Amino acid sequence: SSSFALYAELCVLAANGYISIDAQAALEKALELNPKNMRALFYNGLSFLQEEKTLDTGNNWLKIVSIPAENNQWTRLILMNFDKLIALSEKERANIGVWRQREFDKNNRELFSAILKNAEKQLNPDEVSYDSWKKLISAYFKLNLAFEGNKLIKKVKVLYDLSQNDLELLMEKEKIYGD
What we know:
By secondary structure, this protein is mainly alpha-helical. It contains 9 helices and no strands. The longest helix has 25 residues, at 98-122. It is globular.
């Protein structure tokens, strides 16, 4: 399983992030052999993102952040790519009928919220860069989950011993708006 996942990763890296047919075949084989292979799950999620499959991407990434891991490499990579998932969701929303938008918003909000909450649990403050926390906070606010975003801001403020002034400068710079 890991050999197929590594091969797929090399294909993706060689193609500057594009998931080729060969890479996808290797990912499918890796997941057939081990459905919890984090590398294969992550790149399979990128493949779904490339194919503009919002729910498949989200469900795939939820699997990753729900599996206890020795390190949080894959969670950090998901957070780095989460803006793309939000943008894809917004694009998809614009193309559906108004009568379906409320259900679409509810389903995506529940799925994306679950991804972020599980990602937050996976992030170990001793091993994670400050940027991962910023990405997580930003995602909460982009999804209009201000309560969760503000709660995380307070946690990060304590973790990094930030003054209120430092925090406000960061929030403005990163376009993150909390209370």
